[in-house]
């Protein structure tokens, strides 16, 4: 039998650590007192506490490794999430800090449809980070947004996504807007000789209809926020259709930013987002306007790229306050297989989007 | 124009409070520096900071009220969640503690399909709390689980739900299992002359097919975990079909248990769960094996029941370590419009489920 191995960081005293680990193993599987669980059921279903050790980095924390029988996840993402962190989330003193899955489960979850290679093929870019931007701000008229998109494509940008707050009052408005923007990007590509992609934001309601429209427009991917729409819904949306996915971390901070509970940055925005099918995982880079540290960002990037049997590597996309001057250090920190997602800084850099994009693109090429 | 009014509790110093509130108002709407947002767009789209005040309960916290234009939510739950807490979740020092919506948006989200009245009609119970239990443990054979279900129905229980960790290896296994359990509950009802409901757990994959099967079996509701499956997916699943929903808080603790960020208990498990269509919202009661306080539980119950134009009131379901002896205080604390969800204590109370259920039911009737 194969096992799902989850590591929890517990905030507790030394005598509390082992009982807390055991409580998690029971809570996540049978949710019953031992007295009423028949012994064969307990043996087959209750999680096994493999080890409980002091956390070498903190005297107030312990690391507990628990093995769950693979079958408890029913081969799917929602049961897996419930198994590894469903009720434990309510404890408030246990954080999921590592996760190892059986290869069969990894394969069945599947991961990115494009991955690093597929997206390089689609964009035609090799050996350097991709330059991406967001269509914003919401509220600007469609001509203004189209001009930004056209300029970015013409200037040599690689990928344009809708901002995750760009939603439309109706399906028809969505269809019309993405049609206009797709045409603007195509114009820009023709003008600049490039191959820039446009990935619209898809959210509820009418997700399936919107995905049909994305494909009808000949677009190859979407931006979605898995923690808002639902991780498994997001996964099925892209994997069933072979669409690329740029995953947005909206709402995910509630998991990562809790010191003593929640889910570790690398596990959620790295490993789990990759497993659900993210070709690109967006996260706020250290030093920007959010609170992620250099280590936390590094753990996300590593989890997206680490060898994982049956699952393609994915792209980290540090974002949130990138500037022209931060490009060299970003490229040095993250390496070539990175999507550099630049929003405001590109719009603020110069008068015309096409010129700003050219300069950012040149700076990237100069650094690799 | 109508506004969505969100109140955030900020952990910061006095001079930081106002700038942080302004930063949230911009982050959640345009995500751009003010310099590149045209003035008319800023006026129409950027959130308006209504007030920033010291939190009377803590010198380290401030309360900021921000108004967002109603149209930014596009009348739907996913855009609304992104608007009120998407990127702010990544800040780590802002907690959503209150939320007021325009009536039109409340009506369009819709809320419970059954509510307090509808579920009283379905169960035929008036004037007292409902007695509910969970089918568990996973791993027990179907005969054992069927006997528990039959005994609970025959003994006068009102509602049986699958445990949220009860998932099946295939759609066929799901269909077969819920068929067997539905038949067992029907048998128990015939035996005891009762009207106990059975609501299966529905999760990914194959949600629509599973819902079809639930309805084909003549069942009137489901258990779902909105934060695992996705809040809007859960909402559509039940509201489009007129199904009842018992909402499970799995994963939701990552939001509620963060002291200085996340989303308040009453806002998430009360107001938002109710708006998405929960007839019953399950949460861990104070004093059980989880860490919710009496105040936090009270805030959930109040949010589920408070008058809300166009939205029916819903049932709180305190759970997680209920016992026979805690019934009187539970009933006193929560009142008659409450679902008392008893799992392990019922199985541990006596040899036979039918007798344990009778005793719990009698105790409830005695207390009201």
Structural class of chain A: alpha/beta
Average pLDDT of chain A:
96
What are the segments of chain A in which pLDDT stays under 50 over at least 5 consecutive residues?
Answer: none
Please give the radius of gyration of chain A in angstroms.
22 Å
Count of beta strands of chain A: 13
Q: What's the helical proportion of residues of chain A?
A: 40-55%
**How far apart are the termini of chain A?**
46 Å
Which two chains have the most extensive interface, and how many residues on each? A-B, 83 and 83 residues
Largest sheet of chain A: 5 strands, mixed
Order of helices and strands of chain A: EHHEEHEHHEHEHEHEHHEHEHEHEHEHH
Oligomerization? homodimer
- Shape assignment of chain A: elongated
Q: Major sheet of chain A: order of its strands?
A: 2-3-1-4-10
Helix run count of chain A: 16
**Share of β-strand residues of chain A:** 15-25%
